[in-house]
Amino acid sequence: FPADFICEAVDQTRGWFYSLHAISTLLFNRPCFKNVICLGHVVDAQGEKMSKSKGNVIDPWTVINNYGADALRWYMLVSTPGEDNHRFSTKMLEETIRKFFLTLWNTYSFFTLYANIDRFIPQPLTVDSEQPKAFTELDNWIGSELNRLVSEVSKLMDGYNLTSAARKIEEFVDDLSNWYVRRNRRRFWKSGNDADKLAAYTTLYQCLVTLSQLLAPFVPFIAEELYQNLFRSVNPQARESVHLTDFPVADEAKINDKLNSDVELAMKISSLGRAARAKAGIKVRQPLSKAVVG
User: Fold this and answer.
1) What gap in Å lies between CA 247 and CA 244, rounded to an integer?
2) Are 149 and 180 in contact (CB under 8 A)?
């Protein structure tokens, strides 16, 4: 006492919020909470208040049974800041599943498929290990982005900005899947288990395990599945649940702002190039005689 935060809908501004303050002032002459997360109302897709007479009420249990509790939680977090009225749409919920959950799960499935084929067993890195020497610029980049993500998410959650924190994770998962994995697929496909291949496995493994811990407060069931399959299955000394582990702490020494900005520029140029191809009607795989970047 006082509580770190309380959470209620906006209609409780002059109700519950005020009553708590009034009672606490009378009894203790001090506030009873330090922060407030004030939520807007959930309305239908057209912005209308839900009511039985209008027939636009959505049964939450139907949504949970059809799409899952984690999908509903994530959709409510990332689609609209909590303080705004939330226009609920099952179509947008399905889009959230496709955009984030399927991308995350496909990345996890890619790793487990080839890791099982190669019988990859994660090992702790040491100074004398050959693996750090085999790390490529892309390995270092995604590791830098991972640590930057941990730092940013921690700061946003400390400030009770859960929507921005969730969106940061969503952006990272997109980069991990569509840039890191796509650019490195041949490293996983090639025969033999050389240092380069093990470095790729180690990098992707660290990203997925850290994501399971970052996601635990947001999507507890999927985070638990990732943790159990990726970490606890190969580490008998691991904590029983991801929810019993410590929240990740960023290694600031591994954040390379110059590398991050260089890769971001390369990604931007690539995206502009694809847009120019689409505008000119040139297929992605069709070679160009030259490309000018101005």
Assistant:
1) 9
2) no
pLDDT for the residue 277: 86
- Nearest-angstrom CA–CA distance, 50 and 57: 5
Tokens 């790729």 appear where?
200
User: Residue 87: beta bridge partners?
Assistant: 43
Token pair 């996983």 is found at: 188
Do 82 and 163 contact (CB within 8 A), yes or no? yes
Q: Which long-range contacts link 161-166 to residues 24+ away (Cβ below 8 Å)?
A: 162/77, 162/82, 162/218, 163/77, 163/78, 163/80, 163/81, 163/82, 166/74, 166/77, 166/78, 166/218
Task: Convert the pLDDT of each residue in 191-250 to its tens digit.
Answer: 777 888 989 999 999 999 999 999 999 999 999 999 999 999 888 888 999 999 999 999
The pLDDT assigned to 125 comes to: 52
Residues 283 and 176 sit within 8 Å (Cβ to Cβ): no
36 pLDDT higher than 70: yes
DSSP for 143-164 reads HHHHHHHHHHHHHHHHTT-HHH
Residues 168-178, mean pLDDT to the nearest whole number: 96
Q: What share of the chain is helix, strand, coil (3-state, %, to 5)?
A: 60, 5, 30
**pLDDT of 128 above 50:** no
3-class secondary-structure state, position 87 = strand
Contact indicator for 182, 173 with CB cutoff of 8 Å: no
How many residues are given for the chain?
A: 294
Q: Which residues contact 151 (CB under 8 A, 6 or more apart)?
A: 250, 252, 255
